[in-house]
Design a protein that fits this description.
91 residues; alpha+beta; SH3 type barrels; 1 helix; rod-shaped
């Protein structure tokens, strides 16, 4: 019985640490992942987006894993769909 009671604070500490890890790392990561998935589902032809490399462009076409962007200079760039990270801010 005394061994069990001496392990309770240690068990409580591990549960507390796991809870903190969940709320500070896992939960925010899942939220960002869900937002990214919603963004990728919402983009369509004409959407103005920004890639992870900092390229600004309007969506010309969308395929399963790629997106063709038209930049301000008129160049067409084919990028991976997952590299689209945000919509362009409104000016």
């Amino acid at each position: 019985m005394t061994e069990l009671t001496s392990l309770l604070p240690l068990l409580f500490f591990f549960v507390l640490m796991f809870g903190a890890m969940y709320f500070f790392t896992i939960r925010p990561q899942r939220k960002r992942q869900k937002e990214q998935e919603e963004l990728l589902l919402a983009i369509k032809k004409g959407s103005k987006v920004v890639t992870s490399g900092g390229i600004y462009g309007a969506v010309e076409s969308i395929e399963d894993t790629t997106v063709v962007l038209k930049t301000e200079s008129g160049a067409l760039i084919k990028v991976s769909k997952v590299s689209v990270v945000a919509r362009q801010p409104q000016r």
